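Supplementary Note 3. Input sequence used for the single-chain structure prediction.
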Amino acid sequence: MANRIKPGYSFVRKIAGPISLLVAVLSLAGCVSMPSAGPVLAYPATQGADAQGEPYQQVVIEPPGAGWLPNQIVQGFLAASGSFGDNWQVAREYMTPQASKAWRPSWSAIVYSNGPNVKGPVYSVPAAAARPAAIVKSTAKKAKNAKPAKTQATVIITGSVLANLSGSSVSGYGSYAVPSGSTTQGSPGTEPTITLVKEVTGQWRISSAPPELLLTSDAFKSDYQLRNLYFFDPTTPFLVPDPVYVPLQATPADLMNGLVYDLVKPQKDWLSGGATRTAFPAGTTFPAGPTSIGAVTIEGVTAVVNLGGAITKASSQVMQQISAQLIWTLSESGQSGQTVQSVEVEVNGKPWLPPGNTQENPVQRDSRLYNPAIGTSKTFYYLDAAGNVMSSDGIRAKPVKVAHVGTGYLQVAVSPDGRYLALIRQGGDLYIGPLDGALIKRSGSLYSTMSWDPNDDLWATMNNQIVMLRGAENQGQPIVASVLRSVGIGTAMAVPFTAVRVAPDGVRIAIVIDNSTLDFGAISWQGTNPQQPMLQIVLSPFNVPTGFGVTFTSLTWYGPDNVITLSEPGPAVTEYPVNGGAATSISATALMKSITASPGSALIAGLAKGRMADNASLTGSWMPIASGVSPVYPG
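The predicted structure, written as discrete structure tokens, is reproduced below.
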């Protein structure tokens, strides 16, 4: 963003809230190029006493100056539009009245890792019909051989695109924004353009601007924060968090109205293409209003959500699902110290009472029936030197033999319900069977990693592909998943997939690509033939590269929204939020070969030479435990 900086100071924006992995690799502060005149002055300031005098930069946005040229107007507009306060009133001063009225960017944005840069301007003479009448009349009085005045200019915005934040607008409210993960340079002809006209006063003003904000990476880090929307998996048992970006400057009412709107009318993203669904019936409406959707009002710590339309015919079960979505989504959306602790659902202004409510109190403080899948277990399994599958109900409990499988196996996995067993043998053969029954060799070869989902289907990497073996007792062929980088129709990725781990909800999957990148995908079935649906995984935009010379060697889920990885060299143990939030380093111990985790239980590591170690917490120390190979919690 090209701004004018007061001489003697660099332009540094104080970072608010957690910084996502999408932008964590970028500099937290930087200087920017500037025109000879411009709209932004930055000067040192100090927060109040409660902030212990921490210095930060106070940014003052200025309106356009007299005689500014088109490129200066555009640079000033870009700086001012990065500020969400007061409905971009200063930014609108850079526009004609007509353009200001039409410009409603909502929360959508293009985020640049290098840019936005101003290219131009290119001057032109607008058609007479497009020029102000006073200018047309003035031009007619000039000599016949005089050149018409160039009263129109076009500026192209260039730069390396870091993310595209898609959003919609509902009577002034924005919806959520999802990063695209793109890091490509905008191709010629596709870059945003800004058109300006020279008004009768002789001042240049913007007559046409892109529908989205054009932000630097620093502005994005300062102005946006991650939140979760919650949707159901296709079979309804679990709520699945869907990470979204929202502006920090949004008022609590604006924020919650935007989030509720997106629960009712989900936007297209990596999870919404068949992996999740909303409980809100199609045709659910918001109260009519000239300036807002008006669905949410805040009463203390309670969000009152008023809806109409098709929801009036929803069953009690559907209403309970709707309430669960609202409670989980809005209780995480508090900003500026305000936190929602309960929800009241109204249908056309009338409070809805949950079934069995004898006190006629519509306020709900928990979702009761529906929660995100956690995958908690205190029991872990491993292989001993004698070829037995052992289980232990905690790190200090006495191990119990649950099956004898023989030697020569490298990995073991137990289904979440504890009924089925899967093992990978030296050489890459896969065996599956009941925990207390016979094992059957399955089709395929060169299996390398595996993970059970809640439906007792096994997921694995085989020949660098991701495959699913449907049903523990099904003898069918492995189904190869088509992995796409984009939502909807996309090109299947032809790269090595070297590790997988399915989330407790069975909807999301953690994937290691070519040993060097951690990504997350949404599982869905596509196609019109119900007898032969196509297995599809759409990758999220929150991929995590390890860095040069570093490889991921093991991964495990830790709760509904976090993954823990083991990487080399090091070894290094790291916790990554699925929503792209900041990573957390965990202490490691020497000779680690694998890691497994379960919320509320100890981390268990497989070490070299058939040894194991445990860590009672994410911040504790590693201690040796019984000897064994491939320790795993169910899943």
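Confidence is low (pLDDT under 50) at residues 1-58, 180-185, 289-293. The first strand starts at residue 40 and ends at 46.
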